[in-house]
Specification:
This protein is mostly helical and about 325 residues long. Helices cover about 60% and strands about 0% of the residues.
């Protein structure tokens, strides 16, 4: 939106307008007056701007804004505190987990996970019982991110303590299907296939309102875990006629998953992509070869070293690194 437009109903303070027009930077303490403006939209946008600028000097003003009567302002202030990441906001964020508005609780657990993962970890089990499905969903996602962060891994496998694992198994019975899928992803990454049926439904595209990140995670896990029940859906994604000549991100993901299952045609399609006329397609194939841990692709990739016209050097080296490293799946699929 154009905040400098005089035709708008909202009158932003001149300092905020000047900032958005690029005429000045942030003062160290931010814009406390904007956070106290009579218009809730002004207060909300000021809070978001302070967070985007990582303005730590505005911490006191933002903490005060967390007590604002308007839930949108409270949510924006919490978001800003999460972006700034100062643990002095921890106590206020923990208190915000009990806000009477779901959107504020939603934002509070996200911010708390950034500011104090330890406190967020002790709070997600309670938030996962929230009346609001969006709050329950984000609590499960935050749980996954906390354990990934603690273990310093972005790979498939993580370790859960027994308390969280038992709770996650209960989350598989949630009335809201996206929550069940998020729980299934969390458990699968820990080697627990109790939620396999939810993963299969996610890969098959049968979960309404599924977050694209969860759809991607389900596809990746299907390949890593060898979930044969997803094979037909993955083949549709990978080999649909409309995608044969112009593979998109979804078809490459499906090819990787199938290749990790040992699918002969998928492995051949990825290897063939390394010889494509288009550099973009060769780059995509190289990335897929790395993600699929295709050892047969290593000599082909190595032969392209030193020729940036054939492959992006960073893509090439990352693919070779992944192939060399390999990866052990969290658990072998033994069927249901």
């Amino acid at each position: 939106e154009d905040v400098a437009d005089p035709a708008r109903d909202i009158a932003f303070p001149e300092s905020v307008v000047s900032l958005f027009k690029g005429e000045l930077g942030f003062p160290p303490e931010g814009f406390p007056k904007a956070l106290q403006d009579k218009d809730a939209m002004v207060r909300t946008q000021a809070a978001y701007a302070l967070g985007d600028a990582r303005m730590s000097g505005a911490l006191p003003a933002l903490q005060m804004a967390m007590e604002d009567d308007h839930p949108g302002v409270r949510q924006a202030a919490i978001d800003a505190l999460g972006m700034i990441g100062d643990d002095r906001a921890t106590a206020r964020l923990v208190r915000a987990l009990g806000d009477d508005r779901a959107e504020v609780r939603f934002q509070a657990i996200i911010a708390l996970s950034r500011v104090s993962p330890k406190d967020a970890r002790s709070s997600v089990l309670e938030l996962a019982k929230d009346d609001d499905p969006h709050v329950r969903y984000v609590a499960v996602r935050v749980c996954e991110e906390i354990f990934s962060g603690e273990q310093g891994t972005a790979s498939t496998a993580i370790e859960l303590d027994s308390t969280v694992e038992r709770a996650a198994e209960q989350w598989l019975t949630d009335i809201d299907e996206p929550v069940r899928v998020a729980a299934a992803i969390l458990l699968a990454r820990a080697g627990n296939l109790a939620g396999k049926s939810s993963l299969v439904r996610a890969v098959e595209g049968r979960v309404e309102g599924l977050d694209p990140e969860d759809a991607t995670a389900a596809i990746e896990l299907a390949g890593a875990l060898g979930l044969q029940e997803t094979r037909e859906a993955l083949e549709r994604m990978a080999f649909a006629v409309v995608r044969r000549w112009r593979p998109d991100a979804g078809s490459w993901m499906a090819l990787v998953a199938l290749a990790r299952m040992g699918h002969v045609e998928a492995r051949a399609r990825i290897l063939g992509g390394l010889r494509a006329w288009s550099r973009d397609r060769r780059n995509a194939a190289a990335a897929a070869a790395g993600q699929a841990r295709l050892r047969e692709a290593a000599p082909v990739l190595a032969a392209m070293r030193g020729d940036a016209s054939r492959l992006d050097p960073e893509v090439l080296e990352e693919a070779l690194r992944l192939i060399e490293r390999g990866e052990t799946s969290p658990v072998a699929d033994s069927g249901e």
